[in-house]
Design goal:
two-stranded antiparallel ribbon, 4 strands, mainly alpha, 12 helices, globular, single chain
Length: 230
């Protein structure tokens, strides 16, 4: 639907603030989303933005309601994976699993299908089904050497599931693969690798000094830069 020019500008300003703040200050982003929602609740983009702002602040019931409203308005299935993840947030992993088997999943693009696979694997883990989560993540997308925006997260989730299953060597291999693909630092794969390697990073400030001082190693084979191997 179209809005009067002045109203449309007010709504747009609030949506811009939601997008700008949602990662660094989700509560403030949520506040802006509520203003936009009061101004234009019949606009699908507003309902979607309000859903993501609620999702970012773990208000999963509210987020799910907004995503459902946006889906009704647009007829798009794009939000299906995040809707399923809201079900997980509400403690209903079985519902998320049911959504993973619905026809809507086949209408998603590749990125959406990978996202749905990640949500389904998370739901399996919520239910204590670690081995099933590992199988869920095994796919042609995981096996591919091509790197896409979703590749680091998919590899990371697989590594994390392997580690939960006690398969540490394989987990290390996949954390390394996640790190290799993660040019933007979307995951903490480097930290997880360090933990598996027994590396501890120490950042110590000398008393009254402005500059960091080198920490004494707890063991003889201290790495340069303050890293020590346990």
């Amino acid at each position: 639907m179209s809005l009067p020019k002045t109203l449309a500008e007010d709504v747009a300003r609030n949506l811009v603030m939601v997008a700008r703040l949602i990662d660094e200050d989700p509560e403030q982003a949520y506040a802006y989303s509520r203003i936009a929602l009061r101004l234009a609740s019949r606009v699908a983009a507003v309902r979607e933005a309000a859903g993501f702002a609620a999702y970012a602040t773990q208000k999963y019931s509210e987020a799910l309601a907004e995503f459902r409203a946006a889906k009704r308005m647009t007829g798009s299935v794009e939000l299906w994976p995040v809707m399923a993840d809201c079900e997980r947030g509400l403690g209903r992993p079985e519902r998320a699993m049911a959504m993973a088997g619905e026809p809507e999943v086949q209408k998603l693009d590749k990125a959406g299908q990978v996202e749905m696979r990640l949500v389904a694997a998370g739901a399996r883990r919520d239910m204590g089904q670690i081995d099933a989560a590992i199988v869920t993540l095994q796919s042609s997308e995981l096996a591919s050497s091509a790197v896409h925006p979703w590749t680091p997260r998919l590899r990371y989730a697989y590594a994390d599931a392997l580690l939960a299953a006690g398969r540490e060597d394989e987990a290390r291999e996949w954390f390394a693969k996640a790190l290799e693909a993660d040019k933007d630092g979307a995951t903490d794969a480097s930290d997880r690798l360090a933990e598996l390697d027994g590396v501890e990073f120490v950042d110590v400030l000398g008393e009254g000094d402005d500059e960091p001082v080198e920490a004494e190693a707890d063991v003889d084979d201290a790495d340069e830069g303050g890293a020590t191997k346990a």
